[in-house]
Amino acid sequence: MEFDLVIINGQLIDSGFGFSKKADLGIKDGKITKIFEPGKITKKELSALPKEAIIDASNAIVTPGLVDIHVHFREPGREDKETVLTGSQAAAAGGFTTVCCMPNTTPAIDNQETVKFVTSLAEKGDCRVYCIGAITKNREGKELSEIGDLVKAGVVAVSDDGDYVQNPSVMRRALEYARMFKVPVISHAEDKYLVDNGIMNESFTSTKLGMAGNPAVAEEIAVLRDVKLAGFTGSRLHIAHISTAGAVEAVRRAKAAGVKVTAEAAPHHFTLTDDLIEKVFDTNLRVNPPIRTESDRQAVIQGLADGTIDCIASDHAPHTDEEKDTVFDEAPPGMIGLETSLGLAITELVDKGHLTLPDLLQKMSFNPAKIVGLTPNRLAEGEIADLTIFDPDKSWTVKRENFRSKSKNSPFVGRKLKGKVLATIMGGRVTFRQ
Amino acid sequence: MKLSSRHLIGLEGVPKKDLELILDTAVSFREVLDRPIKKVPPLRGKTVLNLFYEPSTRTRISFDLAEKRLSADSISFSASTSSVKKGESLKDTVRNIEAMKIDMVVVRHKSPGVPYYLTQCMESNIINAGDGQHEHPTQGLLDIFTMRQKYKKIKGLRVLLVGDIKHSRVARSNIWGLKTLGASVAICGPTTLLPYEAERLGVDVYTNIDEAMEGVDVVNILRIQLERQTAGLFPSQREYTNLFGISRERLKRLNKNFTIMHPGPMNRGVEITNEVADSPESVILSQVTNGQAVRMAVLYLLSGVDDKETPTA
What we know:
The structure holds 2 protein chains of 2 kinds.
Chain A: E1 5-14, E2 19-28, E3 31-36, H1 43-47, E4 54-56, E5 61-64, E6 66-71, H2 84-93, E7 96-101, H3 112-122, E8 128-133, H4 147-153, E9 157-159, H5 168-179, E10 185-187, H6 192-195, E11 200-201, H7 204-209, E12 213-214, H8 216-233, E13 237-239, H9 245-256, E14 261-265, H10 267-271, H11 294-306, E15 311-312, H12 321-324, H13 341-350, H14 357-371, E16 387-397, E17 416-426, E18 429-433
Helix pairs in contact in A: 3-4, 5-8, 8-9, 9-11
Chain B: H1 16-32, E1 47-52, H2 58-69, E2 73-78, H3 90-98, E3 104-109, H4 114-121, E4 125-131, H5 137-151, E5 158-162, H6 169-180, E6 184-188, E7 204-206, H7 209-213, E8 218-221, H8 227-230, H9 237-244, E9 259-261, H10 274-277, H11 284-302
Parallel strand pairs in B: 1-2, 1-3, 3-4, 5-6, 5-8, 6-7, 8-9
Helix pairs in contact in B: 1-5, 1-11, 2-11, 5-6, 5-11
């Protein structure tokens, strides 16, 4: 058989479809055309290939391409922070083959034209890019966007991410209306009145620093309202970047009560705590919702472990050096995350025994794809070759100069992580190789 | 003797020996202020920048005079008349000024963490003159100096801070400094103006002013900002005054030989009555005088001038 690319000596893990085995893969015309028993691929088949078409995945895991359903690629409007192209390159470097872009661009993704524009930019990129449409026109929280039109143009979910749909009646209509098109409504759950002018988690640390606090209850009330509305309307709700113990518990109870709710956690919320802001006031630690206390962090980890939280999403939020090189309360909230997501998850969740590696991969590929209604990637003959190859034991240090993202606003620079992406393959094309 | 840091960012975590060194040094400078010629030479040739991004009368004049009385050259910067208006970043502003060769910066800014940020982008010694609601260390020091002047020592004193603790940098600096020096500290104010988990600061927390005053030596009354009322944090000035205003009547529960303090500016008739503000127990004006001595001590000690040289020699 002829191949464009072969991956040899790897450990295949497809957690969505529940298998783990040693095997070699042959890829042709963008698809997985053959799965070989180890060593069954012939020397002839190998020698027919140029060196770069053979990926040796010894000591590495080969898994269906990772999916991140919460990124900000800033285009159109803030191409100085990130473009769809640079964002897709960062995604590939992080092991992702599919991402979903949030609609808080300028103009907002609240119309077909902007969806088509972003999608067309992605054609030259290094990962598959889907749009999440705005729930309301211009994300103002007032009138519904033309969700039918948006879905026709390809959006996979709707969200006013960055802002909470503060008016409960608008959120109710959004949930009801979106159900017609079978797309989930993603909630950035933070009650604006309770957040007030808060710039970090309200805690003893905010007391000491004299910083205006954003209390956990702002998120918890927002989540409680939305799961109630989801239960009432019977619609699908997804909670973005869940960060507090009370919010995790609210989702847990809603799920037990049969509400169609899913949730995601961001790596910074299961890794960092707000006391880190003390002394150095690192503006890269400013994010919404804010990094919380150790007990919140533990609750997020517990939620991931017991299935309350379905997936991991980075909330990749690029900002320029010029914007971040200032004092804490003047810096825009958000941090990049695509290139550190897998490493942080392995380091904090797998290495510390909270999740098995297959469980983690399910939360980074199969589950997020399901949430936004995409066909999950899988390792089987005839399937599209979207693959991630990584060494789960390899240690590396996060370095600013290695980021593919146009922005470098990561609080993880200098941090030692375990688990390194070796190669990413999208539709049979190598989009990243170590 | 030397301070363990070349900046004064806050009083949190400042070791006892540093606090004592500043207070002891301030005693000598306080004496200078009573001389006919109130000027000494140690900072001759040093240039100090007063960088005020927020309005200030007392602190700004106090620093300016302290610098002049130490023979430093001082220059002042006001955000409202500078290139900040033209969109220049804080970092560029300070680095440009530093390029004109200055040695020390006194900074006031609305954002917590600005003094620390300046230590990261400048070579100068940085003195915090108030950063948002975080700290105002020289105010804390001058309050403590004023208490020590009267009681000789801080250890064992019972100090009560009254008012808007949540938004007060003065309260935070007082609490850290007083705790390090062994005072027992209480705070009292409406629950909406107390910070989250305030008791973890190591203070006793009260909402009833009469209970809070019991057995107290020093009452430090904080300014109540009237915009807190419009923000919904308390219902009316009238109710605030009824519940927390310090009147002569309320002083009865204090220890004998008590002291009344206020960092200013005062809202007379709101958080403090005229009768209390102008009482013999009030040291409000001494606080202002002592402020200069304390600021002279801080400038002198941080400037790195030869520490063998005695300041008033």
